[in-house]
Design brief:
It contains 3 helices and 5 strands. It is of the alpha+beta class. It has a single domain, classed as Dynein light chain 2a, cytoplasmic (Beta-Lactamase). The chain has a 5-stranded antiparallel β-sheet, with helices on both faces. The mean pLDDT is about 90.
Length: about 120
């Protein structure tokens, strides 16, 4: 993909994520592309905590996929007592969206990756 198209794709994804962050129950997101990262959290003092959670969710999900020879994951959802994380890979971009458990992560998946 040409660099200009890739930049537009990342900008579009960032706009969608910014819009999602305004939804009730959304705590924030981390977007990582091969050349950059964007972090937008309601509580910026927790950036490191959420970055570790995001990375760990991706790594654990990929290890499970490999161990059970399941194939590739479209999404990884990690749900705890009061928070859940939706992690996705679209193209070369990896991102995690942090939200309260009441948020419908399946709707967010459809908003992010309409097919």
């Amino acid at each position: 993909m040409p660099a200009k198209n890739k930049e537009k794709e990342i900008e579009k994804l960032q706009e969608i994520l910014k819009d999602l962050k305004t939804m009730e129950g959304i705590i924030g997101y981390i977007l990582r592309s091969p050349n950059s990262a964007s972090i937008d959290l309601k509580d910026p003092t927790k950036v490191i905590d959420y970055a570790i959670l995001s990375t760990t969710a991706f790594e654990a999900g990929l290890e499970i996929l490999n161990a059970f020879e399941i194939g590739e994951a479209e999404t990884i959802v990690l749900e705890g007592e009061g928070i859940k994380v939706l992690s996705m890979i679209i193209g070369d971009d990896r991102f995690s969206i942090f939200m309260e458990n009441s948020v419908d992560h399946e709707k967010i998946c459809k908003d992010l990756n309409p097919a």
